[in-house]
Write a structure and sequence with these properties.
This protein is an alpha+beta fold and 124 residues long. The protein has 3 helices and 7 strands, in the order E-E-E-H-E-E-E-H-E-H. This is DUF1508 domain-containing protein.
Length: 124
């Protein structure tokens, strides 16, 4: 069904990506200073998805991408696609599934594999 995945950038600001049902990133948001701003924008997008506009571009390298606009505000930028058909499929995935997508939060600095690391160290 797709998911919004919240994480941190290297500069400690927050961002989110929307991933397809297969786990591929479709678009990446702008940066947010605070996590709750990021989460609020996801919820706002899910509720107002019918107002979303997709501005399509072809980059200098020949790849396609879109800028996602919510109203008049630049909301996110897509990944690069090799064909216009794949770009259109990415947009279709957003339109069909984003309003029902879950939000996954990977923004904490804690390791999700911490127990395994401790166990490996104990075995050594």
């Amino acid at each position: 069904m797709g998911a919004f995945v919240v994480s941190r950038r290297f500069n400690d600001e927050y961002k989110f990506v929307f991933t397809s049902r297969k786990g591929k990133v479709i678009f990446t948001s702008l940066s947010y200073e605070l996590k709750f701003e990021c989460e609020e924008d996801i919820e706002k997008f899910k509720v107002n998805i019918e107002q979303a506009k997709f501005l399509k571009f072809k980059g200098s390298g020949g790849k396609y991408f879109f800028k996602l606009m919510l109203g008049e505000v630049h909301f996110a930028t897509s990944r690069k696609y090799t064909t216009e058909l794949l770009l259109q499929k990415g947009i279709k995935e957003i339109v069909m599934y984003a309003s029902r997508a879950e939000i996954l939060d990977f923004s904490s600095n804690e390791s999700i594999f911490e127990d395994e690391v401790v166990m490996e160290e104990a075995e050594e």
